[in-house]
User: Fold these one by one.
Assistant:
Number 1:
Amino acid sequence: MQQVKLVADMLDANSQLAGQNRKLFEERGILSVNLMGCPGSGKTALLERTIEKLGKSYGIAVILGDIFTTRDADRISSLGVQSVQINTRGARNLDAGMVGRAMQKLNLEGVDLLFIENVGNLVCPAEFDLGEDTKAVVASVAGGHDKPAKYPLMFSECRVVILNKLDLLPHVDFDMSRFISDVRKLNPPVQFFPLSARTGEGMDEWVKWLGDRVKNKARQLSFRGF
Ligand code: MG
């Protein structure tokens, strides 16, 4: 019982801090995207390709969560965008406080789009609100079509499902219609983007959708007279 209370208190504190992050995103007109998914689903590769396509049009910054190492941040900063690596030292997800502190290390002036690459995990990140605008799950055909059925919270909480590594489809047993119908059952309005970050197939649809949302966010800000 004690433990249940502790978890409830922790999630309460998290949602307060998530509210602060959300307020900051609103005030600055920043579209924030929380990228979640298994280790190896290709979250960082997707980020690299997305930054290559959108980086000339928009100010982009990235917060990366990993249990250890700064390898992902090294990959991202080589593309010339600001990034902050959070090492959670064992924690299996980012929380709103970690993201808030990481944002203090970024110069948010001119940032239109903030990516938050969560720790590779299909369970814990779904339980923590970071104050983000969009939760996106990255799955891959190599990871199998059973992920939505096995991790329903993640797939029902998100607004976007990206199915990566489409180029591997001829080499793996992946039942596409099963995957799609399981996702739709959990989350009928979800945006679905099958793509390959490696070959670029399907990337344009994802990038267009994202770019439209960034523009929309900036428009909302000017309506409010900032
Ligand atoms: Mg990564």
Number 2:
Amino acid sequence: MSKKPLILGIETSCDETAASLITENEQGIPVVLSNIVSSQIEVHKEFGGVVPELAARSHVEKIDWIVEKAINESGKKIKEIDAVASTAGPGLIVCLSVGLSFGKAFALALDKPFIAVNHLEGHALSPKLNSGLNYPYLLLLISGGHSQFLNVQGLGKYKRLGTTIDDALGEAFDKTAKLLGIEFPGGPQIEIIAKKGDPNKYDLPKPIYNKGGCNLSFAGLKTAILKITKNIKTNQEKFDLAASFQRTVEKILYKKTKIAFREFEKENKSKEKIFVVAGGVAANKKIRSMLINLCNEENYKSIFPPIELCGDNAAMIALVGLEKFKLKEFNNLDHPAKPRWPLDEDAAFLKGAGVKL
Ligand code: KG4
Ligand code: ZN
């Protein structure tokens, strides 16, 4: 029996300090041996958002014991690690630099390969941590910084079909929460209070709903909410607005996903129809069930990461490391931190995000 690779993954791109050890079984299925995530909610709460310098300082304070904990919990010894994979972007540069430098130094000390990982590729592959996943698939990536439909052809092979032309969906959830006076990080709270409200109370705009293919836009929604909040007096009105926001987002995603299905099918004739949803907002249970219903209607297989692996974590980074390790795709120790690092490099530099309206 050959030794299976053991990969240490490190993630510090924003406000989570995380480390994980993963390997794979005889069938080549990834096995998560440890997955430690330390959130910085308390550090940033009083500022209502992530303060980059404070986030970086907190990563520096925690990174060594988080990695130590991940190694201890895995039941493996340091010398058994075959490669170190760190997030190199996209993200806050002062934060990325912490995990990146730590990972490089660790790899150097162990005399093992170093692998620079794209955080978005981590989200894109995260469903593989609990289910089989074959290429190609249509990916909806909905996080705090990104909202995109991607045709995923293989590891590192991404074609963007649609993107947000302004705010990311997670950002829209967070901004709406802030306007409703909900403490940071408010996104997940919107889902909770929406359950107590009437989703039909407020008629909110659905920007570029009838144009722009499967591109997305959420900034107009935030502006409309800002106007309404000025006249809101009761908690019930707050719940109604949260519910109306949640419902509007579901309607937008339903319509745009259907368009993305058609575009994906054009490019992948007679292939199995697989739809993967990843990123922090994929934890939203109402969005999940709406998209699962849509997949049932459209004969798509739907795949979501487990809720606890939707947000930022290092298991998904170690997973990309594992895939790249098997292909011997290693990086030099001078690999830079990249604040911007699109999955589809060609699409990203088109004017106006390449969106024709
Ligand atoms: O993927 P992620 O952890 O970090 C980034 O890479 O951005 O995503 C974080 C985003 C935040 O905007 C957060 O409010 C949102 O995901 N989020 C949610 C839920 N849980 C997290 N949005 C809506 N409903 C949720 N249950
Ligand atoms: Zn993320």
